[in-house]
Amino acid sequence: MRKFVRFKRLKIIEQILIVLLGAVIIPMAISGFIINNINQQSMRSQLRESAVLVTNMVSEEVDVFLNSSLNELNQIKFTLEYLGGGSYAKKKYLRNVLKNSPEFKDLKILNTPQELMELHDYNLKHDSISIYTTMKNKKFLVATFDLNFVKNKLFKSLNEDKRQIYILSADGKLIANHNYKEKDFQATIKYLPKKLKPNVPVIFGNLKNQPFVYLKKTSPNITIIVNTTRGVTRKAINENRIKLILAVLLASFTVIFVVGLYTYYLYINIRQLFKGIIALSKGNYQRRIRLLTNVFTPYEIIFLAFEFNRMASQIHKSYLQLKKKNAELKELNEFRSNLIDTVSHEFRTPLTSIQGYTSRLLRQDIEIDEETTQKSLRTIKKQSERLSRMVEDLLVVPDIEGDRIRTKLEPLWLHKVINSALNLVKTDEKEFINNIAEDFPLIIADNDRLEQVFVNLLENAIKYSDENTPIIIESVIEDNIAKIYIKNECAIIPKDKLKKLFEKFTRIDDKTTRTTRGTGLGLFIVKGLVEAMDGTIKLYSNEEYGFIVEIKLAVFKPDEQKINE
Fold first, then answer.
1. Domain CATH number, residue 536
2. DSSP helix/strand/coil, 363
């Protein structure tokens, strides 16, 4: 049976799409259809209720307008009835009222009901409306209002409403209107029942989504009709229906977009996990998983990536440490070989010289004069001092590397230290020009260490300077810092090689074509000693002088010394 029924293992994206279709899209479409029908029924009911509400609002506005107008007419009537002076005084008073009351278009006193009806018909034809009150003498005080003024009063709160409103007199004539259109007015009158219920808003007409409402008032005897036009229906039902459909579509697209974005990021991050695992299995310990982290990234994937990166970092760190240890072992082995080669080579010359002159002095078969004896002893002394300095240089290397150099900083006369170093290295083959004055200010340094620095530098200058060229020693003071220069003429040294001269076993000449003696530790030792005395050292090379050493040391300040003490 299993051979015939084989289910394909779906990927994450395929599973999410199936779940999305079955759990979101289809239920949302059905819900949208149901909500749309419910909304349509609700909007129909709301249109009917709002039409009745508008009818009542107009009725209340009519009552307010009539009551306020009648109150004003009654006040004018009472004033006229108690006003003396005859008809002239009354007309003058009415003119003053018209002048001060812009709401009235005209004020008249009529004698008969016939005149009242004629004025009423005249006003209707000329966009006016009249309201009257009966006086004690059976005459009529009539106020005429402009129809636009009445409309503004009655429909002021309905300016934004798109419904059509008609107010009919008892004889069916149109008194006032709002959003009037002749075609719609005739259609509305066509649906108006012949027998109207008084003082109750009634919905009439057989249009499905366009309710008509009338209100037959008995006081005053008018009929208010409200027509819900197609525009209002379209806005209330059709537009809401479209909005609802668009909302459902937008919600569906949003869900699809969010799920798609989530799936995309999930797929990318899972691929990153796969690539990281494969790279690690192939020995690439520097590979790190870089996730696209945002709100769509699950915590579990972030946790897995973090733990994987930490594991890879630890493996890579262990690998680097092992590699570093191997390099250190290799370097240590090279250092040991270089040290043995250098020491055996450099120590051989002074030892051979000492051994030769000592053997000469010990011979009994020849007679050696006093001058030769003294010369041999001076050579032995010089070579032994040189041997001692090389031993001292070798002993100071571990202290420099371990930052264990001890210095005794004190005020020193620079010219005395220089002279002492010159006495140790002075040779007839080289000329030394010492431009440091005896009154040069005191500097802060260690006497023995500074002498060792100058001895190394001067020996280095002797080895590498051109023949028949002097070695110059100078110094200046800038900003309470003593700058000491040792210069010798030689070929210009490239900048890249100049930077490496402070490293151990580094020499200017190549190892295979070495022409000068030396351990290659001199400048390394000098740099360590100068920095131990809180100084700095730099190397320069230019056309005037092939090699220049600049040492900066602090100048002694007696005032500061007193304060420190």
1. 3.30.565.10
2. coil
For residue 384, what are its two tokens? 């032994």
User: For the residues of 248-286, what is the DSSP string, one character each?
Assistant: HHHHHHHHHHHHHHHHHHHHHHHHHHHHHHHHHHTT-TT
Sign of the dihedral defined by the CA atoms of residues 281, 287, 292, 295, in that order:
positive
| Residue 22 placed within a domain | yes
Domain count, the chain: 2
Rg of the chain over all Cα atoms, to the nearest angstrom? 58
Q: What is the pTM of this model?
A: 0.42
CA dist., res. 275 & res. 292, Å (int): 15
Q: 129 and 145 in contact (C-beta within 8 Å)?
A: yes
Q: Is 273 within a domain?
A: no
Instruction: Please report the pLDDT score of residue 515 as a whole number.
Output: 45
Q: Cis check for the bond before 220: say yes or no (omega within 30 of 0).
A: yes
**Rounded to the nearest 5 degrees, what angle is found at the Cα of 335, between the Cα atoms of 329 and 341?**
140
Residue 110 β-bridge partners: 140
Longest C-alpha distance within the chain, in Å?
182
Among residues 235, 265, 300, which one ends one of the domains? 235
What angle in degrees, to the nearest 10, is found between the helix axes of 370-401 and 299-362? Answer: 170
On the question of pLDDT at 540 being above 80, the answer is yes
Q: What is the pLDDT of residues 40-77, one digit of tens each?
A: 777 777 778 888 888 888 888 888 888 888 888 888 88
Q: What is the pLDDT of residue 559?
A: 64
Q: Is 40 helix (H, G, I), strand (E, B) or coil?
A: helix
**Range of the structural domain that residue 122 is part of:** 12-235
- Residue 281 in any domain: the answer is no
* Final residue belonging to a domain, choices 202, 235, 268: 235
CA distance 277 to 282: 9
Asked whether residue 100 is assigned to any structural domain, the reply reads yes
